[in-house]
Amino acid sequence: MSANLEELVIRHTRRVPVPSVTPDPGRRIGSPGVAARRFDAVLMSAGFKLSRDLLSRLSGLPEQTVVDLAVRVLPVVRRLAGDHVRHNAYFRDFPNNVPDTLGFWLSCVREAFPDPVEAWGAESRVEHGVQNLLDLPGYGRYRHTYEELLDAHDELIESAGDRVTVLHPGGSLDEEVTGLYLALAGSVTPLTGAHAEDLRVLAERCADGPQPERIPVRENRALINQARLHTGAGLLLDTVTDVLRLACALSDGDVSLAGPSRFVSFPRPVRRALLAGLDDVVRAAPAKLGDVAAHREEWKRLGERLHPHEYGTRWPHAAGVFAVARGERRAPSFASRVEALLAAGDVAGAATLLRSAPGLLFRSLDRLLRLAPSAAVQDAVLEAAASVADQVSGRVLLSVREHLLNRGGSRGRTRVFVNRLSRGRTTADTRPPLGKGVITGLSAFLDTEVQRRLPEVGHLLVDPAVLDVALPLSGGAAADGLGTLPRGSVSPVDGELLRLFVHWRERRIPTDVDLSALLLDAGHLNPRRLSYTSLSIPGGAHSGDLTAAPDGASEFIDLRLGEIEADVIIPQVRIRSGEGFEEVAESFFGFMLRDAEQKGRPFEPRTVRMKSDLRGPGRVALPLAFLRGEDGGWRAKWLHLYLKGRPSFDRGEGDRLTMPDLVRRLADRRFLTVRHLIDLLAPGAASVTFWDGTRLPGHPVTFVGLARPDGLHEKSTVVTTGNLRDLIPA
After folding, report:
1. How far is the C-alpha of 574 from the C-alpha of 507, rounded, in Å?
2. Rounded to whole angstroms, how far apart are CA atoms 383 and 353?
3. Cα(531)–Cα(580) distance, rounded to whole angstroms?
4. Smallest Cα–Cα separation from 550: which of 586, 514, 524?
5. What is the DSSP string of 431-459?
6. Which parts of the chain register pLDDT below 70?
7. What pTM did the predictor assign?
8. How far apart are alpha carbons 608 and 166 in whole angstroms?
9. Comparing C-alpha atoms, which of 189, 325, 301 is closest to residue 247?
């Protein structure tokens, strides 16, 4: 367990828990610092290194202690970069000597049919598109070993532009685990799927220890309640939905309630705990029965597992929940009361009622302002919002602010939605526009309220590279991995050669995953594709099609950015057959950047700039898009999308838009970024300095950047992409 906890700490914080060792006078320590320097050298081969402080601390430890630590840490960082597997390519010499597509297919036919007559018939079928390539024994399987691939490639030439991820010293493992638990449990934004699982593990370990003052995210509370139930600690419940989420957590279901969960058969002590908690909630606030209707079917299924009738009148208030779910008892929901007022045209009355649910009021502001029949009623809506603004979470305030960024214009535009499962869809915008004055006034009010909550930061040191990173305002806005940024973020792409990669390993059945790249012009038109059906184009090459991965398989796409005749590049990872992204044993996507003369193997961990796990619903993943700017430079726009269908150029999810149109809508959408919060922080800071990447101040600062720089004062407050949620006020 301790090794797993150490891995969690390193993945989330890039800090290494440093062992505490009691000196043993009779034990040989070895040459001071030699083991630490060797550890650092091996790390650099994977694109990581020890900070000066960490190197110094490890240099004072016994040699065997450092060696043991290295043995545990190296697999963790290699996994972060995707270097824990052997990345073989279908074509041994890739990106060189990639054959012509049709010629390669015909060569597979000739191998399969040595008889000239049979070969002629098969070649004819290939040329007419009716020969199934999967029927050919030489197609879709590696033809050489990984060692043979290594022999075909020169060593990577080091470049100053190669990625270096610095590892910093941490405290003891217990200190680091407790700190990470408090940070995740107290997060003001929902966690990604992988981070939520990490919280589940940490909550089991930390259930009896320090707890955060607040747990604002209900999904997090469900995972913590699961751990508390197992350890006998009191449950944290104040709504009936908290109990439903806990039941989902206990069933390994969806605690966000965005999708259906299949409840397990609970042991009797668990059933009693759930019913008792539910009874306490309703006894304290009977009006909360109105929340049952929102998840009526889930409550019915849960009732079949809890058997509340077995306990007679022991928990009558809990029994009332299931009576409401079955329709035997009326309990008008809060939402239905609001809808009744709106149906009657009483917008001001609906706003007044919504004051008792401040978060819902702010999420409903656009609708209320649209329905307001007069300026006076609009003013009443805004006054109701102002009166309860201090009770609304910072995440909701910022979400409304981002919504207003995209609210201008008129009817007929296209709206883009991405849900918590990272599924994207579009629909026509039929809403009447909000007045410019309303948008301007409400935006200023929201900025003032957010600014009021921001902490004092003292000396603010900002890495300009972080300014265009989007704020993580939703749970599915980012993926777990190395170098990933929240959806909507923009980051520069510096390098002459862009290499995309995907790796997967099937669990039970043969699984065919295809990596492709769609290339478009500036108008998102004139499509061309790099894929197994088009292995090469001017400036680009595909490594070849692999159709199964019992021991793991990798596909690559090489793009020489200076030669590609395109302005938009959209990588796609598509499951053609077999297990889904959430079913395979492993699947991840990433990209590397190299100088033109660096050579090296198809996969070189030092050149990996981004690697993200693919663990979403649907059969097609769109991790990001690459866009050429007016200055000719390339930028990455982060998408983190999963689609159900098969968007060759075809339909994206849901509507009349093609997949390129869906990407264009997301690329055009405006996101609230770190720049916005820095602008709000600046007036209250003692000073604001934009770091040029060289000298660091010798005093504590509040640093905001992509990663913690080596040499920053140890008492500094640090916000990086790993804890970007800490910028969002409560």
Report:
1. 17
2. 13
3. 20
4. 586
5. SPPPPHHHHHHHHHHHHHHHHHHSPP-SE
6. 1-3, 22-32, 112, 114-115, 117-132, 409-413, 419-422, 424-426, 475-477, 645-657
7. 0.89
8. 14
9. 301
